[in-house]
């Protein structure tokens, strides 16, 4: 279980304060706590301080590790810790230094020289007083000893009693050298004096000897020993012991001075120890205060930095796109307000992002939709900007402009239209954009492009896009070749129909009239005139026949598309047609096996084959080694018919319009043969293509769908 | 692994702390030498007599002169010596003697281990007197002759009786006055 640092530090602070109070009490009141307890307290304080140091060291280590791992907020925590620690350390250090200085000086000031002199003077005074009293008792003792030494033994007691009373001495006892009591006199009755020790008696036997004794620490007695020199030399040596209490007033004062002096001396002697202990205690207080402030600075710093670190982390998350990051509430202060604002901002961002995502999805769908439409449009669409760089295009545009890559984005339109045949398109676009300073309206133009002898009609429409900042243009390219061709065919059909109608009707009367004129006037005219008439009427009849053929062809071209389809074998049909011609030697047929049947109008297809063979025959008239090759190929779901010759071929100028009426390279002929072929193939939903073979010869390729219906 | 790390840190702290406390508490200096230990039997009681060589440096003699009383603690232990296990204390007896200077009367007052008081004008005389410990009484009867008993004797200055500042100044080792441990067979 991980215990939070703030609880550890709070507990530690309480323990530290308790320990310091006990330590201070131990110093100030010696009775309260014993020296053993003080030692334990001191040890506990030191252990506690060591623990705090370890705790701080661990915290510093963790903080440094966090900085190394670049955990958000760790550097800020370090800065705050240093700031708070400095704020604590500097004043505490100043207080400590002042306190130590003050304490040292205070302790020194206790031991004033004057006080010591006064105390010594008082003690000396007491000693001198006692010495005076001792001198007094010495005189009295010697006087009593002299009197007793000169007296008879039976008079000793009276003399002793008289002199003791006279001198005001409390007790007077005479001992012999064996410590036997000889005489006793006392203010107190029934006194049984204590036996002095032998050393005192021996010393007192030699000379006066006095000493001061204490009783119960309250009274002081003077005890004096004086030898009694007897006039009888033979008698035993006697010693007089006098006991005299010092007056209570003097004794109390003297003892009081002694006691104070002793205490003062003890204090003087202990002052260094006192200094050490107080400084030690102060140092412990200092260390505890410093370490506690440093430890507390970790808690406070983390309290400050953790919400900011959370904010920083959350900001990182948001920058990564995680808008669901919510920071827990942190009180009601400014940081709390900041966090609430941040959470609100995050929610709004999330909402905005969701909306943006939805919009983006919608836009994406619209783009895909547009791309799909563009991709499936047969019309080419290109969007270019003002610098004529392509921003968008569809596949049809690429195909139309014969670009290998379907995507042309980023390329200059000039590069794409680099081909010579597209030059008019580029000129048109360039002119439009250069001149389009005043937002011109859309414009369109038709272009005829000729490539590989095939003419294509392109409609180019330019529409400016209205954008406030950037101008762009939409180029719509439409291949209207088939439309124009169909329009032309339709126009030709209408002309043919009118011609057939308007010309065919008078032809028969013309022919009949010419024949009637010849028949009626040939016999009536001279031979010469008759020859002229016959020649003229023949010319009219021939020309009318020629006109009839032409009108029939026009009628055929202009006829409504009525075909009667049936399942036919095209290879058999070709064989059947070729048999009609006597030129089968120059025709070579090459066909695949198992040519499938087709569903077509046999008569129409026969006409197609005849027209093609006749065209080839016409082209081969001047060729030395004429050849017609008919190839029938089996393809997937279709049959391919190729008719080629090594004739004079079709000039480049007309090959692109060869299927149009009246387009022919022959001197004779209506120019409707290939137009009719083209019309029949189209009516069968087939495809027809004509091309030159190298320098001479023509190849016609027809593709028809195979199968029934 | 983490636990062992923490445990080792705690162990180091405790060891350092104990060393510090130990440093404050004890001194290895021997300034009292116990010799001539004699144990006398009188009826059921035993009496210990011994001499000491007490060497006190000038700091202590100065302290005595300043009026600081010195109390010496005599500790007598009778222990049962066991071959394998630790010794067992059978009896413990503690006695005190002290020396004190009386400035008013300029005498060194001593109180011997039996409570007798003496006064001397000179410190050497006083120390001479306290060096002889006579008739420290204790009661011990060895009922089991198979057991091995020893009398351990040591003397030390009682620091607890010193003025408080000197008691708690553990840095000052002057007051760590201690005798050797005298071991005597019983």
What's the layout of helices and strands?
The complex is a heterodimer of chains A (709) and B (186).
Chain A: H1 5-28, H2 35-68, H3 74-110, H4 113-150, H5 156-167, E1 171-176, E2 181-186, H6 198-206, E3 209-215, E4 219-228, E5 238-245, H7 248-319, H8 334-376, E6 380-385, E7 390-393, H9 395-400, H10 413-416, H11 423-435, E8 443-451, E9 454-465, E10 472-479, H12 481-521, H13 527-558, E11 566-568, H14 570-580, E12 587-591, E13 598-600, H15 602-619, E14 628-635, E15 638-645, H16 652-655, H17 673-683, E16 687-692, E17 698-705
Parallel strand pairs in A: 12-14
Antiparallel strand pairs in A: 1-2, 1-5, 3-4, 4-5, 6-7, 6-10, 8-9, 9-10, 11-13, 14-15, 15-17, 16-17
Chain B: H1 2-25, E1 32-42, E2 45-54, H2 58-65, E3 70-81, E4 88-102, E5 107-111, E6 117-120, H3 123-131, E7 132-139, E8 148-157, H4 164-168, E9 182-185
Antiparallel strand pairs in B: 1-2, 2-7, 3-4, 3-8, 4-5, 5-6, 8-9
Question: Keywords for this structure?
Answer:
heterodimer; A: 709 residues; alpha+beta; Beta-Lactamase; 5 domains; 5-stranded antiparallel beta sheet; 17 helices; rod-shaped; B: 6-stranded antiparallel beta sheet; 3-stranded antiparallel beta sheet
Summed up:
The complex is a heterodimer of chains A (about 700) and B (about 190). Chain A is of the alpha+beta class and about 700 residues long.
